[in-house]
Design brief:
single chain; two-stranded parallel sheet; two-stranded antiparallel ribbon; 4 helices; 33% helix
């Protein structure tokens, strides 16, 4: 990357990016290029405690894969630890997913409750070609 190193930190890499990436080595290299040699980055990422997997739509119950994480990946909790050429983890901790599960279920319930209205708005504003 040709841009100069100009930052001491990337305060939060929480742009809904990591769950959609496939080439973590390249991602980390590009992020490191923005930092000074002693720069730091805080990463907040959704992970599975043990396993990584692709979000794949298998049936209508897979609404997260179909509408939210389309083409995305659920990384394993330890995945980024394998890509340490440009960053070294100083601290690593895990927070349970119970609250996010409740949030996701509430989103689904709200989407179902307003399906007719929301689909009409999407057809008017987004689905035009």
């Amino acid at each position: 990357m040709n841009s100069p190193r100009w930052k001491n930190s990337i305060a939060s890499c929480r742009w809904r990016v990591f769950e959609h990436m496939r080439n973590y080595e390249l991602l980390m290299r590009k992020l490191a290029a923005f930092l000074n040699e002693d720069g730091k980055m805080f990463i907040h990422i959704f992970t599975h405690k043990h396993f990584g997997y692709f979000y794949e739509v298998k049936d209508e119950s897979d609404w997260m894969a179909k509408y939210f994480f389309t083409g995305g990946v659920m990384p394993s909790d330890h995945l980024l630890l394998y890509f340490n050429d440009h960053f070294k983890a100083e601290k690593h901790w895990r927070v349970g997913g119970r609250h996010y599960n409740k949030t996701s279920e509430a989103w689904l319930s709200n989407m179902n409750r307003h399906k007719k209205r929301d689909h009409a708005a999407l057809r008017r504003n987004i689905w035009k070609r």
